[in-house]
Every structure is written in C-alpha cells, then in structure tokens.
Amino acid sequence: MGKKYLIYVDILGYKGKAAEIAEKTDIDEDVCRETFLRNPLKKKIKGLKATKFHGISEIEGSDNYLILVDTIEEVIEIVGEITRINIPHKDFQWIPLEVGVGAKEFDKDIPVEPISRKEVIAFLKEDIINPYRDYFKQNYNESVRETFVLFTEDFYNDLEPLDKHYCTHICHKGKSFFLGNLEKIRERCKIYEFLRKIGYPGSRLYGRIDDVFVPPAEFRDIQNTLKRKKIAFITGTQEYGKTYTAVRLLWEYFCGGYEVEWIKGEGEHQRDEVRKWLEDIKAKVRPHRIVYFEDPFGKTRYEKGESLEKEMGTIIESVNNVKDGYMIITSREEVFKEFEKDKLSAVEIKEFEEKLNLMRPSYDYEKRKEIVTRWAEEENCVWVNNPRLKTIVLKEIKDEKKLTTPLKMRGFAVATIDLNEKDLLLEKIKEKSEETARAFAEEIRNMTWDKIVFLSLLFVSHYHVDFMRSVYEEIVKELCLVDAWDFDDALHWFRDDKVRVGDNVGFSHPSYSEALKYLIGGNDPFRRKYLEIFGKNLLFTLAENDEVAWHVARVVAKHFDKLPRNVRNLLFTLAEKDETAWSVAWAVADNFDKLPGNVRNRLLLTLAKAKNDEAVWHVACAVAKHFDKLPRNVRNLLFTLAENDEAVEDVAFTVADNFDKLPDDVRNNLLLELSKKEKAARIVKKIIKDYFHKLPENIRNLNYY
User: Fold this and answer.
1) DSSP for 423-451?
2) What CATH number did the domain enclosing 12 receive?
C-alpha cells in the first residue's frame, strides 16, 4: 500500500469559453475549442509527462485528465504550470481550469494508461469540485469563470504549515474542502524552479525565501549598490545572514526574468573554482544574468591568491562593461579586509561594499522577533501557537546576547518543534546563543597574535584609548611580537565592526565578550599559548592598575576553573589591598557558585577584615544570600561585622535584603544585636514594620524602645 497524490484537471466552461473566443475571432466554435483550449492543454500535459509524472491519463470519453504523483512538490509544480497555459490569442490570457487535488492510499499499482475507474475520481469531482461550483453560485449569483484549485482534507493535512496558511476552508452541504490560493501556488512553483537553478532542489532553508526572509537594516542600500554599480560585496559577521541576503537578491532578479547562478565556496576545492571563475568573469557574467560568488577570499581565514589580488580591478571593469549583468560576492568581514589590504589593483573596492554587522545592528529586536516567529511558524513549532510560551521566548531574546544571528534563530526553531515547556525552551535559547560566541572564538583563533592581544584586552573591560594603548604596547613588547601592528593600526582595523570607539574603547556588541570561555581551557597548542598570554601577561599587567582591578577580579572569579594557579591567586593578592578588596568581594558575591568552597571561604574571611566599606558590604551580602552553603565560621561573619560600628549599617541592610534567606534564629539574633547599635536602629525598625507578622513577640517589641 502506498499514498499517491491525484490531480484532476478539466477545462472550466469548455463550451462557453469556446463560444466567447469564436465571437471575438470569427473562427468556427468547434475549431476554437480544439485550437485554443483542448490542444494547448493536451500538449502541455503530454509534454510534461516524460519528466514529471508517474501516472497520467486522459479520462476516456472526455477532455479531463487525472495525474498521479508521489510528492506534494510535484503537485505544486504541476498545478503551477498547467494553470499558466496561455490561450494562443492576443486578446485572451490563460485557459480557465478546474483543478481538484486529493491524497489516496492504493492497494496495488494503478495502470498508467488508462486511468478511468470512477471510484478514483469520484471523490475529487463529486466531493469537492461540484460542491464548490454550487457554493460559488449561491454566494456570488453567477457561475465560476476563473481558474480554481481545490484540496481535499487529506491533501490539506499533508501541506506544510505556511502553505496551509494560504488556504480557505469551505464547508458546503455536508462537504468539507479547501480553496487554494492560486497566486501562492504559482509562486511556490517558481520557487521550486529557482531552487533547481541555484543547486538546492527541495531545500527547506531557501524554499521559504519569500516567507521567512526579514531584510537587514542595510538591505535597501545593498539593492541600490547592486543596481547602480552592478557589483555588491556583502561582508560582515559570520552567521549574520550574508548568504541568505545574497540568495534573496538572486530570487528577486530571478522573478524579474534574469538567469541566476550561485558559485559556491563552502569547501576549499569549491573556493578554488570560485576564484577561477572570477578570473574568467566574462564566461559567467552576461547580459540579463546575475552571478553570486561565495567566499572567494577564504571561508574562515584569508586564502591568499596573487592572481585574484592583481586582477580584481579588471574583474570589476569587465562586469561594468556587460550590459544588464550583475555580480554579488560575500565574505566575512575579517577575510575581506585582509584581501583589501593585499590587493594590487588600483580599484577602490570599498565603494562596492555593504556591511552586515552586530554594531549597527543589522537586526534590531523587532527584526529578531520577526525572524524567530516566521521560522517557528514555518517549522510549526508547538510554542509559537501558545501565547504564554511565545511571550516568554520573545521576552527572553530582548537580551542582545540571546539568539543574536539569523542562523541561530532558525536553528532554535528547528530544535524546538515539539517543545512546550518553559525551562526546555530557555535552555535551547541558551544553547543556540552560546554557539554564536563559540563561532566568534574560532574567528579569533585565525587572527595574528597582535590582533588577539588587542581583542583580549576587551574581554576584561573597556578602556580610555590612551590607557589601552599603553597596555597593548607593553604586552606586545613583552611577547616580542616583532611584526605587531601599532595600536592605532589595530584600532582602525577593528573599529566600526567589532570595536566601538567613543570616550572608551569596547566591544561593539555584548555577544563578543562571551567568546572568552571558548578560548581558555583545553590543552591544544593554541589554548596553552593563549592562556599564558591572557593570564601571565595581560591580567597581571592590568591588575597593577587599581582602576581596572575590579574587572580583573571579575574575570578571574568567573573563569576560575579554567585558569592556572598563579592567575587564580590574583584574587588573594587583590583581596589583601584595601584599594582593591571591594572588587574581590564583589566578584566573590557575583560568582559565588563558580568558586570552590575552600577558595570563597578563605576570601570572605580575609575580606571581612578589609578597611573598606564596600568590601564589607559585599561580604555581608554574600554570606546572607548563601548562608546555608557556608561553614559555621564564615556564617559567624555576620555577627562579627554586626559588632563593628563601621560595618553595622551594612549588615542591617543585608538582613533586610535577604530576610527570607536567613534562618529564623539567625535573623532574630542579628536583629537583637543590631537594635543595640544607633546606626542600625532605624533600619531594624523598618524591617520589623515590613515583616511584623513573621517575627516573634520579643522582636516586635523592639519597635517600642
């Protein structure tokens, strides 16, 4: 037994249309019927038979056809093509047809010629086509005259979610069926043709380029550059939609009647082919044609090729000399900049460049919401049809670090088709978001060490330009990087892309700062060398400056388990200095669960002795917030500090902020001790007022003294 899809085709208003043509042309009506209606349909269907159909038959004694195929894609292509058969006369357009589509299980193979059994076609003709004719006449007081396409419920249920969206459900006299959107069917048919042209037949990713594509902020500029200059270099951050944008442009030109080609650069061998065709550009770019060259300069790192560097000017001039011919090139930002630096031709290729990047950003929150939602609808995700879960997902991605790139937004939709639990959805968002940071880490690995040092400084903090310059130059000198760039050259290289320059120098997007955890740890040669530079050279140098020491403490605490012992010990070094003790106390409180128990306990005991109010405040907060995770001697710090006139106010505020996290006896004893201190009395009274019903009588009575 196997399922087949059946397409029933008949000329709509066969007699009436022939009479209309005869009246217009003065040609005999029978001749019109044969010449302008029957023969064009028969020729079209017979012409398609060899390439598309598994079974086809003109039903005996009629002008009807029944076509059997195995896939929905074949159905859409067939319907799209046969509903665009022109009546061969200038005063008329397409032959009007009535089309019914259904799905049926068969016990055995159906003979290809002829297919005439009544039971095979009855459920199409009698169950949907005739009821629709009657439905139309009742609602519009006239017979249907334009082509229509109807689907049975079984066929409709097999459609993809977005295709279902364009169908209209009709119930009439006990019959239930669906009216297909003819324009959408023709569009889908055209997309299938487009996918074959670009080498991705049946692709789910590019097959919805018209439904799920959300234009980046720069899209109109890219369109204009391509139209005016005939060439567009689309560059930018990896995973950020360069390829999808390029394919969308191909689709738009394809719809305009242009021949399209995509020369892919995924593998190294493919990129060699891309470069060869670029050098022989006249063989590819011809009138009324657009060609997309993917990553000719390298995929993840710059792949030097002297001929391309020398010939780029000639390539651009050659394209400009082709009337109505166009070229698109995509490249990662870093790779493109390396090529631009090395090119030997005089042509300024920057004038053809359009960037997609995180700094602008190309996709703001509204665009990101739209992309996630469209892909979720395409994949028919359970959560997108649940208002509560959808709100949770869209609220979560307000964080710029969550689902930053279009590729990860689609990946999230694909991974959550059946998920309907909040925690699982949030976990998937986290997982897909971390993949973007991991990809950025890989990009850094392909850079030279001077650029790596420059970016690594920003993993710790943002800085005034002059301070960052001095640290950069010191570290480069320590490392003996003889070919290292000057600081200003490195700054110019990264600015307006990965780096934002204002009063301070910092990453242009928070996602970049997440890459550090994928650069440290592990035991491969790169990570060993990187860890030595990041820890020994960079962190120790920065720790000498009290103004940035708190950033050092934060980084060490956050990544404690991945750092060598000498770098970990920076926390104890900074904790013993009154000027920097607060920074360690803050780092311990903020990264409590990332530090081993013995380390955080030692640090809290040390920091409690600091002559620094802010350090004491953070110690008190950490102890109160994590009271149940600490040993007795560390818990007792709250009572020790409560006896200290300088710290008593901080302890009182800490009790207020962590009221429900402290055991009843601890909280009550603390309130008794604090009430004796003048500096804390006001805060104690407010605590009693706010939590009156949760306190024993002896504590409540403290309000009266």
Assistant:
1) HHHHHHHHHHHHHHHHHHHHHHHTS-HHH
2) 3.30.70.1230
